[in-house]
């Protein structure tokens, strides 16, 4: 008997190609790298010309150093600012660099910072943060929260507690909104930025400006890819370059076209997600919804599904908690930064080392930060207690807050603040100091954490 022919095997469907990585702005530079020093903020109309002239002034000092670096003294002379402000600028620059720079000492001076990083840092000082949308019912909250509040902008009409109760999160720019705003800023200014970084060679027009691979990598101060791919490896004109044979310089026009193409692709993705979010009534549709998974009973602890898996968060969010305690251990923290947002009458423990931390819009809350390697930013908070060990801290637009700090540098206090209190010395951090402080605030969890890892205090 002849066997009947078997059905031909069905072709296996081809696996879907992984989505392209997204070009994202570096939040650290925009969130922690802006200084309220008027002489560092140049008018947008003359920004490129002013920084080009500054480059010419600083180039001899960078060349004399032999490694392209400028120190606080040279920067102070070129900008006509006090030396302490120049040292502060270089110190903040060091804190927001994408990679550690061992040549910058603890005081922000040392051999100085790379001239290209200094120019990028000064350029974004002109960036203006996205303004929150006005509350739809401002008169309804004005009778509770005085209109003459110290909080500026949106929070002048809405207190942190009302911000939680009125579910007004949708009136505050989301992380996606802010990244769209930052990418749009870079899209507008990228031509000037590349011209500022480029080297001049013999040629005409666009061919006279070129960027080396090393200079191109310095753009990582402003942007990065969602999958962690380096810029030079993602760019076709520098990919797979032989380390023993440096890649030839590329025209600035070609680099500009490539970056704009990636920015447009990312903006399309963000805009699509923002449109989908606005069409949904669930806050879980927010692209960067809170990652408040420490309390499973909390109504907003779910993590949304993102269509593009190449997009991933580099921050952990603890948001919207009221009258509860939240503990985040190292296993709960994703990425190198943590954000505590809009919490009321709660105690938040972040028992994990991170590089950056933000506390925003909280009231009547105690926030304990284990060890922050670079910068803490506390903004628009009321009656908040901050217990933290960090390298630097910036406090903006807060009232009636108490700060128990162990920091390496003097706190930077800006904006409209009222009745701030730092009751203990901020320098000379040691374990006995922290042990007495932690016992005073009844925090045995943090005490055990720091006793087990005392080196985290020596940031």
TrEMBL record:
Its main location: cytoplasm. PROSITE patterns: C_CAP_COFACTOR_C (PS51329). SUPFAM superfamilies: C-terminal domain of adenylylcyclase associated protein. Residues 7-22 have a biased composition (Pro residues). GO terms for cellular component: spindle pole. Keywords: Cytoplasm, Cytoskeleton. Residues 1-22 are annotated as: Disordered. Residues 304-459 form the C-CAP/cofactor C-like domain. It comes from the Eukaryota. It is found in: Cytoplasm, Cytoskeleton, Microtubule organizing center, Centrosome; Cytoplasm, Cytoskeleton, Spindle pole. PANTHER family: TBCC DOMAIN-CONTAINING PROTEIN 1. Belongs to the TBCC family. This is TBCC domain-containing protein 1.
């Amino acid at each position: 008997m002849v066997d009947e022919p078997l059905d031909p095997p069905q072709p296996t469907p081809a696996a879907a190609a992984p989505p392209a990585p997204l070009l994202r702005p570096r939040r650290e530079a925009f969130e922690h790298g802006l200084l309220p020093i008027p002489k560092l903020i140049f008018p947008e109309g003359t920004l490129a010309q002013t920084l080009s002239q500054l480059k010419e002034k600083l180039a001899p000092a960078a060349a004399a150093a032999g490694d392209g670096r400028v120190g606080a003294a040279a920067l102070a002379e070129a900008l006509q600012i006090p030396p302490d402000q120049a040292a502060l600028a270089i110190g903040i620059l060091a804190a927001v660099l994408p990679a550690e720079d061992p040549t910058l000492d603890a005081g922000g001076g040392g051999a100085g910072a790379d001239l290209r990083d200094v120019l990028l840092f000064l350029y974004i000082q002109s960036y203006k943060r996205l303004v929150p949308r006005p509350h739809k019912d401002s008169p309804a909250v004005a009778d509770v929260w005085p209109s003459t509040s110290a909080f500026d902008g949106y929070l002048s009409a809405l207190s942190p507690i009302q911000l939680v109760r009125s579910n007004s999160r949708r009136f505050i720019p989301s992380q996606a909104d802010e990244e769209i705003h930052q990418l749009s800023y870079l899209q507008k200014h990228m031509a000037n930025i590349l011209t500022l970084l480029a080297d001049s060679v013999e040629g005409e027009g666009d061919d006279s400006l070129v960027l080396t691979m090393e200079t191109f990598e310095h753009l990582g101060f402003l942007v990065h890819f969602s999958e962690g791919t380096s810029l030079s490896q993602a760019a076709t004109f520098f990919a797979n370059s032989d380390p023993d044979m440096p890649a030839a310089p590329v025209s600035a026009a070609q680099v500009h076209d490539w970056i704009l193409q990636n920015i447009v692709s990312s903006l399309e993705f963000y805009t699509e997600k923002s449109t989908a979010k606005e069409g949904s009534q669930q806050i879980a549709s927010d692209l960067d919804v809170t990652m408040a998974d420490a309390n499973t009973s909390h109504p907003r602890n779910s993590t949304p599904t993102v269509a593009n898996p190449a997009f991933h968060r580099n921050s952990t969010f603890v948001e919207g908690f009221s009258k509860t305690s939240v503990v985040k251990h190292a296993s709960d923290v994703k990425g190198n930064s943590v954000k505590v947002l809009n919490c009321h009458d709660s105690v938040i423990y972040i028992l994990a080392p991170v590089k950056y931390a933000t506390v925003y819009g909280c009231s009547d809350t105690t926030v304990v930060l284990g060890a922050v390697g670079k910068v803490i930013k506390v903004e628009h908070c009321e009656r908040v207690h901050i217990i933290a060990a960090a390298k630097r801290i910036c406090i903006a637009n807060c009232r009636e807050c108490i700060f128990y700090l162990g920091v390496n540098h003097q706190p930077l206090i800006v904006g409209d603040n009222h009745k701030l209190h730092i009751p203990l010395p901020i320098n000379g951090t040691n374990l006995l100091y922290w042990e007495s402080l932690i016992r005073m605030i009844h925090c045995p969890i943090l005490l055990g954490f720091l006793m087990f890892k005392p080196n985290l205090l020596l940031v």
